[in-house]
Design brief:
The protein is about 60% helix and about 0% strand. It has one domain. It contains 4 helices and no strands.
């Protein structure tokens, strides 16, 4: 007995309907967005952005932005 595969577009539409019904539109969009690949060339952008910084410079900047834990 062979099972015929449904078209992916049909499965996607059904999944979006279920997610929207169960979680709401905002959480559905947030969930779906975690699977998008984005755009651009991060490697090229990163090299341009950090070309004049050392690793120590970057670590220092991150530490300055961190907030101390609250007691």
């Amino acid at each position: 007995m062979a099972i015929e595969a449904r078209p992916l577009v049909e499965i996607t539409k059904e999944a979006l309907k279920v997610l929207n019904k169960e979680m709401g539109i905002v959480d559905t969009v947030r969930f779906i967005n975690q699977f998008t690949t984005g755009y651009g060339d991060y490697t090229q952008d990163r090299e341009q952005l950090f070309k004049d910084l050392t690793l120590d410079d970057i670590i220092s900047a991150v530490k300055k932005k961190q907030t101390p834990p609250r007691n």
